[in-house]
Amino acid sequence: MSKPPLKQVGIGSRLLVFALASLSFACLLGQFYGLWTMRFFGCWILPPAGVILYLIALRHRGEPQSLNNPRTWIIQGVIGGVVAAIAYDIYRLPFVLGGVPLFKVFPRLGELLLARSEPRWLVQTLGWTYHFSNGAALGIMFLAIVTVFARPAFRTGAIAWALLVEVLLLLTPYTSFFGLQLGPQFLVLTISAHLIFGVTLGLYLQRAFRTCAGNN
Fold first, then answer.
1. How far apart are CA 87 and CA 93, in angstroms?
2. Residue of 177, 104, 98, 105 whose CA lies nearest to 134
């Protein structure tokens, strides 16, 4: 029996996967605007969302790894997003070593998730884990959107996606909340870093789905 074509994937499946992944960002946004604490969201919302994504991937495990498969969006989105986040941080590392406080956000995230400042190893671990969770979420969200098209533009689409996310982030209280100076240096570094994220994500997905996507 032949597999259903790409166009038969329901919009509901895409919206569900996109929404579940986006909760990683909702965790922090709610903290910004006083809607909930990251500790509450991290304990009671993110774990069930992760379980549901896992179950969705498990449900589709018998289907081919294609652009039409929600399991593919989740697994390849996580891998691509984490790889892109690593490239993003490697790019920023020389500036951090030069004194730019780009990484000071991570321990603060850990403190918000733990609701205390000790032990420091756990604070750091939680902060960095949440950071890579956001990278994975971006990968999943992007794949849930871009695979609507039969020939997804992974490279250009991922760059546009990463830059859009950065613009939206700058419209939130992100910089003031974490005590970052919103000046020309910060803008150049953060936009270029997100460009690196987008390029890496796009190249990874282009390679992973070469047979499905063709040349974009």
1. 10
2. 105
Q: Is the pLDDT of residue 215 over 50?
A: no
CB neighbour list of residue 5: distance below 8 Å, 6 or more residues apart: 68
What's the rounded Cα separation, in Å, for the pair 53 and 67? 17
pLDDT of residue 61 exceeding 50, the answer is: yes
8 A C-beta contact, residue 135 and residue 162: no
CA 54 vs CA 11, 61, 115: distances in Å: 19, 10, 27
The separation between CA 55 and the C-alpha centre of its own chain, rounded to angstroms, equals 19
Q: Nearest Cα to 143, choosing from 54, 55, 206, 185? A: 206
pLDDT in tens, 35-55: 999 999 999 999 999 999 999
Helix axes 70-97 and 46-59, enclosed angle (nearest 10): 130
pLDDT for residue 5 is more than 80: no
CB atoms within 10 A of CB 89: 20
44-47 long-range contacts (CB < 8 A, ≥24 apart) are: 46/133
CA atoms of 84 and 135, how far apart (whole Å): 7
**Which spans in 98-183 are helix H?**
105-114, 120-146, 154-170, 174-177
Q: What is the pLDDT of residue 169?
A: 97
